Hints:
Elements: H1 2-19, H2 24-29, E1 35-40, E2 45-53, E3 59-69, E4 78-88, E5 93-98, H3 102-108
Antiparallel strand pairs: 1-2, 1-5, 2-3, 3-4
Helix pairs in contact: 1-3
Amino acid sequence: MEQEEAERSTNIVASTSEGSDLDPIARVRKLLFRQILVGIKDGRFFLGNFHCIDKQGNILLQDTVEYRSIRRSSPSPTEQRCLGMILIPASCRTSCHVDCSIEEQLSLIQLKE
């Protein structure tokens, strides 16, 4: 069991070091269909599967759920609703988190060029 985990972590590290040599399009392709949490300026968050990004940095998510804070007192401090496919303009985006291992996150940081 430990040997399998060591091999798996070695493979991730190897693919991470290879990922830094890939062109931006290949690196973005690695994000396809990954679950991404995107925050926007008004405090809402969107959790969905990454579908695409355009040259301006607008992100298209599918199977998206919106989370927002509720200011009034209630049992749950957040409210959620299912939206489906949405486009998040780059001008509204404040944060973007990819659901993956730490090693993969480090390789994806290099997308900010």
